[in-house]
Design brief:
single chain; 362 residues; alpha/beta; Aspartate Aminotransferase, domain 1; Aspartate Aminotransferase, domain 2; seven-stranded mixed β-sheet; four-stranded antiparallel β-sheet; 12 helices; 13 strands; 16% strand; globular; binds pyridoxal-5'-phosphate; transferase
């Protein structure tokens, strides 16, 4: 077999460890997963009802254009229906962007560490990577703008950033957008948009009018609690959307996903309540981290990256033996750290009890 050589350089995505796997390996009956930034409160009950209502339609191909979801979202966001592109999760939107804009002889600028898929897709397309280190866990937008050159086609800004959880502010983003040439696509990955409470966080949809080289990516996987339904969307100029339509698979979002996403969108009360509970859970964890003198990055997401000053993989394994799955920082470019998803109050307490042993026993 002779696969294309360069794809073998793209790392295979390492997902959070599945619950069933840990139960079997450690002989546990109760395991909690705080590894993949999933919503511990599930999804809106209305989304479940919407899925059930579609169960007689499974033999029928989905609406490839996601028309009803498109209309609803366009109204919700105040953009034209033609300004939206749907993907099989944001992951597929990232892939479509790379496929449409990157190739050998081009380069792409991103932070380091940031969400792994920007890098993988760029490698697959044969583009050169320009990775700009984070500054105190935050995108160094000045250095990123300075790194852009004639061959740059795409710049990725993960805001809030995964895995650090930090944001760039409106002022920082605007200064950056002014510097980036209009021919260069700027991707704003806002997978955690709905979790953010900081008033300095940029509202980017209105910026599309001034910056036609911008695409905003959001998803139903995180606060909406629909990760398994695989629906993400991009908001951009009609020109960018129509370029991406050329590389989109015909039926990339399914009927169940589209129906669930619509219902979830119409239940903003659920979103607000998850955001509030998440902030309370964040405080529950960080208050204790402060007490223990641990350094962590200020997070506007539903996860926190904390420095335990111990071998990440060892701590990860110790937590597994307590029935808690987190994400080892060494896999994410932050050795010594763990990335922990905010759980329910009860899950957080269980995590803190296990962590206390690890922190104090060191
Ligand atoms: C979770 C995540 C995604 C992918 O989300 P899906 O919509 O489930 O594909 C994209 N970007 C970031 C930063 C994420 O954390």
């Amino acid at each position: 077999m002779q696969p294309k050589q360069r794809i073998l350089n793209a790392p295979v995505y390492q997902p959070g460890k599945p619950i069933e796997d840990v139960k079997r390996e450690y002989g546990l009956t109760e395991v909690i997963k705080l590894a993949s930034n999933e919503n511990p409160y599930g999804c809106s009950p209305k989304a479940k009802e919407a899925i059930v209502a579609q169960l007689d339609n499974l033999a029928i191909y989905p609406d490839g254009a996601s028309l009803q979801l498109r209309w609803d979202l366009s109204e919700f966001l105040g953009v034209k229906p033609e300004q939206l592109i749907f993907g099989n999760g944001s992951d597929e939107n990232l892939l479509m962007i790379a496929r449409a804009f990157l190739s050998e002889g081009t380069n792409t600028v991103m932070a380091k560490p940031t969400f792994s898929q920007y890098r993988s897709n760029a490698i697959i397309e044969g583009a050169e990577l320009i990775e700009v280190p984070l500054k105190d866990g935050v995108h160094d937008l000045e250095a990123m703008a300075a790194a852009v050159n004639e061959q740059t086609r795409v710049v990725w800004v993960c805001n809030p950033n995964n895995p650090s959880g930090t944001i760039v502010t409106t002022a920082e983003l605007e200064a950056f957008l002014k510097k980036v040439p209009k021919e260069v696509l700027v991707v704003l990955d806002e997978a955690y948009y709905e979790y953010v409470v900081d008033p300095e966080y940029p509202q980017t949809v209105p910026m599309l009018a001034d910056y036609p080289n911008l695409i905003i990516l959001r998803t139903f996987s995180k606060i909406y609690g629909l990760a398994t339904m695989r629906v993400g969307y991009g908001i951009a100029s009609e020109e960018i959307v129509s370029a991406l339509e050329h590389v989109r698979e015909p039926f990339n979002t399914g009927t169940l996903g589209q129906a669930a996403a619509r219902a979830a969108l119409h239940d903003q009360e659920f979103v607000v309540s998850c955001r509030e509970k998440n902030r309370a859970g964040m405080k529950q964890l960080t208050d204790r981290f402060d007490e223990w003198g641990l350094q962590y990055y200020p997070s506007q997401t539903n996860f926190v990256l904390v420095n335990l000053n111990q071998d990440s993989n060892e701590v990860f394994k110790k937590l597994l033996s307590h029935g808690i799955i987190v994400r080892s920082g060494s896999a994410l470019g932050h050795p010594g750290y763990q990335r922990i998803t905010i759980g329910t109050a009860e899950q957080n307490e269980k995590l803190l009890r296990a962590l206390e042993e690890i922190v104090k026993g060191a």
